[in-house]
């Protein structure tokens, strides 16, 4: 099988249920989930296989789920069973709580960064927020799986929590935003 098909040369691509322009909001939304997935791999390769084994395992599961989310977002017209579920969102909440417990309490906003791992995870967080915004726009215009929007919302929180946990494991302090006041109590 050849990698190139030439079917997209005119600016359209296939989605589940037909063909759309490559800049269609649906393609932009699922394409951005693919970007998140690529950035997750960047975070994983920075991790120590022993020290960060649980993080690698959770992030690898998230990579599979991001493919599921992309597939759900790619459905235009022809319907099949969605893959992203409320249970996946609930599990993310459990993971958030677990990683949040590893990091010191915060009272102010923090700047993205710290260790190389944390920095990579913060990139995952902000690209996930963009994917979420695009998914919100898509859901106003076309039918989508609402659980994908919830999943992306929770996933960005997960990346925040795991980024802070990565800093804590590596003995790196978060940098507080010094021009802001206390926002967390």
Automatic annotation (TrEMBL):
Superkingdom field: Bacteria
Any single GO BP term: cobalamin biosynthetic process
Location of the Cobalamin adenosyltransferase-like domain: 3-165
InterPro entries: CblAdoTrfase-like, CblAdoTrfase-like_sf, PduO-typ
Pathway: Cofactor biosynthesis; adenosylcobalamin biosynthesis; adenosylcobalamin from cob(II)yrinate a,c-diamide: step 2/7
Signal peptide start and end residues: none
Molecular functions per Gene Ontology: ATP binding; corrinoid adenosyltransferase activity
Pfam family, one: Cob_adeno_trans
Keywords of the record: ATP-binding, Cobalamin biosynthesis, Nucleotide-binding, Transferase
Reactions this protein catalyses: 2 cob(II)yrinate a,c diamide + reduced [electron-transfer flavoprotein] + 2 ATP = 2 adenosylcob(III)yrinate a,c-diamide + 2 triphosphate + oxidized [electron-transfer flavoprotein] + 3 H(+); 2 cob(II)alamin + reduced [electron-transfer flavoprotein] + 2 ATP = 2 adenosylcob(III)alamin + 2 triphosphate + oxidized [electron-transfer flavoprotein] + 3 H(+)
E.C. no: 2.5.1.17
Subunit structure: Homotrimer.
Family: Belongs to the Cob(I)alamin adenosyltransferase family.
Entry-linked NCBIfam families: PduO_Nterm (TIGR00636)
Record protein name field: Corrinoid adenosyltransferase
Source organism per UniProt: Marininema mesophilum
Biological classification of the source: Bacteria, Bacillati, Bacillota, Bacilli, Bacillales
């Amino acid at each position: 099988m050849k990698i190139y098909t030439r079917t997209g040369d005119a600016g359209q691509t296939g989605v589940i249920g037909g063909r759309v322009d490559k800049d269609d909001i649906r393609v932009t939304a699922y394409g951005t989930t693919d970007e998140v997935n690529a950035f997750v791999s960047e975070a994983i390769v920075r991790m120590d296989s022993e020290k960060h084994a649980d993080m690698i395992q959770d992030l690898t599961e998230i990579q599979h789920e991001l493919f599921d989310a992309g597939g759900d977002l790619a459905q235009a017209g022809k319907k099949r069973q969605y893959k992203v579920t409320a249970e996946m969102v609930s599990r993310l909440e459990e993971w958030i709580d677990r990683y949040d417990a590893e990091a010191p309490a915060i009272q102010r906003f923090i700047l993205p960064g710290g260790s190389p791992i944390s920095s990579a995870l913060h990139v995952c967080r902000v690209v996930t927020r963009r994917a979420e915004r695009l998914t919100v726009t898509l859901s106003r215009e076309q039918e989508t799986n609402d659980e994908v929007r919830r999943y992306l919302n929770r996933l960005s929180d997960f990346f925040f929590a795991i980024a802070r946990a990565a800093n804590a494991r590596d003995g790196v302090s978060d940098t507080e935003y010094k021009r802001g006041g206390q926002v967390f109590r």
